[in-house]
């Protein structure tokens, strides 16, 4: 027990929570925007891989870090545009197209990596984002290390959540996006195009997912590995449900999830890790996500038109 | 733009558009190989001869197609009922695990062990999908995410077993299970040719699923549930029970892929037994338009792409990941082509 208390009191534990949560926050906001507009985006896992690769590759080729983030975003928006085109105007199955986009984006990233670096055994490194020193706050003795030793990309993630929440709930654009996911007929009655709103939401959301992936290669680690996204995209889909499609609650979910993840990593180093095999610890994040889905299933407030294609003129 | 149904699509549309989708995939293949600095025609040629060009190549393709027929059938059965089983990978490993357990721990003679391994595998796979299916029918939990996440849980569970209780003491430290005895392996169909009875079993299953879908009440109920669950329920079809039965069937079929790989090919269980057969099964099923006999053809096509790409990349400087890209593009082009056989795009 004292070991757990020690972990909870260490500043590095709290810093790790924010770090682990960052990619999830970006990608969860991206998925949330898609789903609020009525489109389930199962391309998320692959788009995160593509973002992780594109951002890293741009920086490896000599671009500044923020240009790398932009490159990741563009890659994500590209795959998002494909997803949007197939699921919105053509109304194809969002399950099938999403899984197809995940396969395509993942394979494309791996193919491009192999083309760019045919014969490397040790993945080359870039100089990633460094922790941002915030005057005064970062210098507070324990708190500074725990909460204020993050990279700019982490703060951008929190800002993204705030902006998403604001735009969705306080602006006409957000109202249009939400209405496209709840009652598309009403949107058309207002003279707006459901198709355009949904496509825009999917493209923007996919861009955010890719930035989430890029966080892995440009802030959390400094190299691109195969299978580095490792199911994070699917976890984000669970987080959207857990957050009942609300940005604030989803952010809370991501932090809670990251807390458990940071805890299990540290518990592996303790006496408990001697008894319990490490695979059990690694299962915890996935099992927690399933548990979250089960717990929230009763009060899920699913957007009414989620996964329902809209074809103008249909009744 | 909007879509307008076509009352009676002509043969040009119904055959021409899917053919166009395949042609577009070939164009993508050429572009990818040009991108890699290779001659597209040579790359394609190497892929085709590598997959179908010799007896050895053909047998390799048939072997690779075997698990894909099982997983493709598993997906086809489930998707027909709109049960989104993305967890065939986990079900496959559950089947492989039971196969190894029964084959190595019970010490049964071969003729008894083989059917028992298959039944154990089916039960394990069915059980793995039963959880998400019950969560879906009882609590309304989305099965896409639960089945996806279970793939990761199962992979870790297998990894634990192979490094712990199920580790082969003679395995030189590698995380692999002990091998099942020779007489409990699936024999080869023709002596001396590397093709085992798992392939024949896969064909049998395809025929079996076809019979279930077209000739039985359950098949009718699955179709009705998939097309419109509300209407099916109104017509007196026990939708919940149909979904659970579908899940058992689908999980069992996916598990047979694990059984066939272990008992027919590898003899033991490792963490890389499946080269994403569970996920690739989705492409196989979709390319077959969820038709069980079509699954056999599309599994051969997909296996050909993988075997061909493996063989090609040894001779040309094109990464094997080209196969995965081609599969994904074939899938996306094909679903679009099939849609356009039934609808026309009009302005407004």
From TrEMBL, chain A:
InterPro entries: ABC_transp_permease
Keyword annotations of the record: Cell membrane, Membrane, Transmembrane, Transmembrane helix
Entry's localization field: Cell membrane
Gene Ontology cellular-component annotations: plasma membrane
Pfam families, sorted: BPD_transp_2
Protein's name according to its UniProt entry: ABC transporter permease
UniProt-recorded Gene Ontology molecular function terms: transmembrane transporter activity
Transmembrane segments: 6-27, 39-59, 65-88, 95-113, 147-168, 199-218, 275-296
Organism of origin: Salipiger pallidus
Domain of life: Bacteria
UniProtKB/TrEMBL annotation, chain B:
Subcellular location(s) per record: Cell membrane
One Pfam family matching this protein: BPD_transp_2
One GO cellular component term: plasma membrane
Tagged with keyword Cell membrane: yes
Keywords assigned by UniProt, alphabetized: Cell membrane, Membrane, Transmembrane, Transmembrane helix
Membrane among keywords: yes
Topological category with respect to the lipid bilayer: Multi-pass membrane protein
GO molecular function, one term: transmembrane transporter activity
Protein origin, superkingdom: Bacteria
InterPro entries named among the record's database cross-references: ABC_transp_permease
Name of this chain's protein: ABC transporter permease
